[in-house]
Write a structure and sequence with these properties.
Blueprint lengths: L1 E5 L5 H7 L8 E5 L2 H9 L5 E8 L3 E2 L1 H8 L5 E9 L3 E4 L10 E4 L1 H5 L2 H7 L4 E4 L3 H9 L7 E4 L1 H6 L3 E4 L9 E8 L11 E8 L7 H11 L4 E8 L7 E8 L5 H13 L2 E9 L14 H16 L1
Parallel strand pairs: 1-2, 1-3, 7-8, 7-9
Antiparallel strand pairs: 3-4, 3-11, 5-11, 6-9, 6-10, 12-14, 12-15, 13-14
Helix pairs in contact: 8-9
The structure holds 3-phenylpyruvic acid (PPY).
């Protein structure tokens, strides 16, 4: 098996990949952007790819959400949660006073803003493709920045000096990563599963979002993430990217998806997969599989007279 990941080596995404079960037998292929990593899955050059999707501080990773909601269908087959610790790294001999520019990934920069405001208020942010790419840049001598915000492993891998440790504004920051594959066999239901979809509505109308939410509420389904993303067609046109508890094989999830299919112009199914936190889904009274099958049998009886 070949797994692509948002690289180069030393990104937080590589750490997520290393936490996957059976990774010892997997060939790891670093790919410099999320879009290219997902495209490599689509064109078959890798079997699956790991990308960041959601951050407990910054919210959804737009590049991932947008690349999953357009183009050929892909599905999430696994999720991984990684606690994130940032360091400020620089070439040997650099002091805080020498730093004019700081290179990093936009999601990393957003999570160290307060630290930077307090300790390096004059420093300019230099956007880089990833935290590890920012660190790798410092291994050469021609960069528009003197320090990088990256993972401790990336600083170490490039022989950089760590000027400050644990500089994240929120010490309990966690990023959620997903393993994405071409549609095929679904992961088995475990009782602690999540399902992801992107919902497109035909038009903009009062109560449009409520109509979607009602489908979930009526079947006792708890949402774990809800984001609106521009469709790109026109200003004000949005789709909804949603994660919710349950597996597509659960009756209540199947009924919800059918309800959504009726009221949406398009429902893009992004997979059912085991939850990384293992939290068992609490099924509300009246929404168990047996409740749905009994209700269906009752209706069949009515129709048969
Ligand atoms: O740039 C990286 O190392 C990534 O994997 C993306 C990222 C950046 C910041 C927090 C979590 C993931």
């Amino acid at each position: 098996m070949r797994y692509g990941y948002f690289g180069p080596a030393g990104t937080f995404t590589e750490m997520a990949l290393l936490r996957l079960p059976g990774v010892e037998d997997v060939e790891r292929v670093p790919i410099a952007s999320v879009e290219a990593a997902l495209e490599a899955v689509r064109d078959g050059s890798v079997d699956a790819a790991v990308v960041p999707i959601e951050n407990s501080v910054e919210g959804g990773v737009s590049a991932t959400l947008d690349a999953l909601s357009s183009g050929a269908d892909l599905v999430v087959v696994h999720e991984v949660l990684v606690p994130i610790t940032f360091v400020l790294a620089a070439r040997a001999g650099t002091t805080l006073a020498d730093i004019r520019g700081v290179g990093s990934h936009p999601h990393a920069w957003a999570q160290v803003r307060h630290w930077m405001g307090a300790r390096l208020p004059e420093a300019t942010y230099v956007p880089c493709l990833s935290t590890a790419a920012a660190a790798a840049g410092l291994a050469g001598d021609d960069t528009a920045y003197e320090a990088a915000v990256c993972a401790p492993v990336a600083a170490q891998a490039h022989g950089l000096q760590v000027l400050a440790e644990d500089i994240g504004d929120n010490r309990s920051a966690v990023t959620r990563f997903v393993l994405v594959a071409r549609p095929g066999r679904l992961p088995e239901p475990t009782g602690a599963d999540k399902t992801s979809v992107v919902l497109f509505q035909a038009d903009d109308h009062p109560g449009g979002l409520l109509e979607l939410l009602e489908q979930f509420a009526a079947r006792g389904i708890n949402l774990t993430r809800l984001e609106s993303r521009p469709t790109g067609d026109a200003l004000g046109r949005y789709c909804f990217s949603i994660d919710f508890e349950g597996h597509v094989n659960d009756e209540r999830v199947g009924e919800t998806l059918m309800g959504l299919r009726r009221v949406c112009a398009d429902v893009r199914f992004l997979g059912s997969y085991p939850r990384a936190d293992g939290a068992v889904v609490e099924v509300r009274p009246g929404t168990r599989d047996t409740d749905f099958t009994a209700a269906r049998a009752w209706l069949r009886g009515l129709r048969n007279g």
